[in-house]
Amino acid sequence: MKVGLIDIDSKIPNLALMKLSAYFKAEGHETELTSPLFADQHGVVYASKIFDFTPDPVLPEHTIKGGSGYSLTEVLDEDIESMKPDYSLYPCDYAIGFTTRGCYRKCPHCIVPEKEGKFRIVGDVHDFWDGQHKVMLLDNALNTDQEHFLRICGQLAGLNVAVDFSQGLDIRYLNNTQAWALKDVRLWKQIHFAWDMMAIEKQVRRGIGILGKAKLKNKSMFYVLIGYDTTPEEDLYRVETLRGLGVDPFVMPYNKFDTYQRQFARWVNHKAIFKTVQWQEYRA
Ligand code: SF4
Predict the structure, then answer these.
(1) In this predicted structure, what is the pLDDT of residue 72?
(2) What is the pLDDT of residues 121-167, one digit of tens each?
(3) By C-alpha distance, which of 181, 206, 194 is closest to 239?
(4) Four-CA torsion 119, 125, 126, 131, nearest 10 degrees
(5) Is the CB of 110 under 6 A from ligand 1?
(6) Is residue 184 within 8 Å of 153, Cβ to Cβ?
(7) What's the angle, vertex CA 83, arms to CA 82 and CA 87, rounded to 5?
(8) Would the pLDDT of 87 be above 90?
(9) Which atom of ligand 1 is nearest to the CA of 170?
(10) Residue of 102, 107, 106 whose CA lies nearest to 117
């Protein structure tokens, strides 16, 4: 049997499709990435959509649909979820996967608590690493559990792989022990943190102090959500505070179609502008 796998809108290799491919190959079937146009040629078809705003393509009736663009509650069966991804599906030179799922926090703008539930450990790097020189971790709250975090950092350092903590780490959990473990990890991209809510200013300042002591400030950046529950004055306060503390802010507009949010994000995220022009001048 030939299994058709349709990746509707992923920006990175689709982990669920790679696991489905590995599962069906292990069962003796063929798999291939295909498009909705050719889906009819396959006895079994899976389609994955990540974003709910992506238009739905026309698909055969027997298509099995998954991904947060279709449903926040559908998950892969455990025997598929536990497969090592089939990296041959994409031209991909890095390993990709989760070692934890979920998050204890319930930030109102975030789909993770509804999609993945409470924080739990689900595995380690060896469950998805296949000899690549780079690893992209998809964990949403990796440093929630100190013991697990230190173990994962130890594995990554031992493998000497370049690492992207793609969903960021939680500055509120960061302590000196975690920072020193991070120092042993070879970084592929900057370490992301977030300052989304005004209420966590104290923890942000404390965390940046820890990053400073560990000499990790220049390897870190902070996402700043705007347009959700903060005022423009609070947005400016957060980015200027981060700048003053020596770390890079990166603005995430909640509504990309809002003129102020788009303009503010462009000012901050375009580093040549941010370094040379004040917001008041830029806006004028
Ligand atoms: S801490 Fe991060 S992952 Fe957890 S709910 Fe908040 S935004 Fe989502």
Answers:
(1) 87
(2) 999 999 999 999 999 999 999 999 999 999 999 999 999 999 999 99
(3) 194
(4) 160
(5) yes
(6) yes
(7) 140
(8) yes
(9) 1
(10) 102
105 lines ligand 1 (CB under 6 A): yes
Q: Is 112 in the pocket of ligand 1 (CB under 6 A)?
A: yes
DSSP string, the chain: -EEEEEESS-SS--HHHHHHHHHHHHTT-EEEE--GGGGGG-SEEEEE---TTSPPPP--TT-EEESTTT-SS----HHHHTSPP-GGGS---EEEE-SEE--S---TT-SHHHHH-S-EE---GGGT--S-SEEEE--SSGGGSHHHHHHHHHHHHHHT-EEEETT---TTT--HHHHHHHHTSEESSPEEEE--SGGGHHHHHHHHHHHHHTT-GGGEEEEEEESSS--HHHHHHHHHHHHHTT-EEEEEES-TT-HHHHHHHHHHHSHHHHHHS-HHHHH-
**What tokens does 251 get?**
């603005």
> To the nearest 10°, the Cα dihedral for 181, 187, 190, 192?
-40
Q: Once rounded to an integer, what is the mean pLDDT over residues 35-45?
A: 91
Structure tokens that stand for 161 in this block: 């792989």
Residues 6+ apart with CB under 8 A from 121: 99, 100, 145, 148
Per residue in 22-54, is it b (16+ CB within 10 Å) or e — as a string? bbbbeeeeebeebebeebeebebbbbbbbeeee
pLDDT digit string, tens, across residues 48-65:
999 999 999 999 999 999
Query: Is residue 171 within 6 Å of ligand 1 at its C-beta?
Result: no
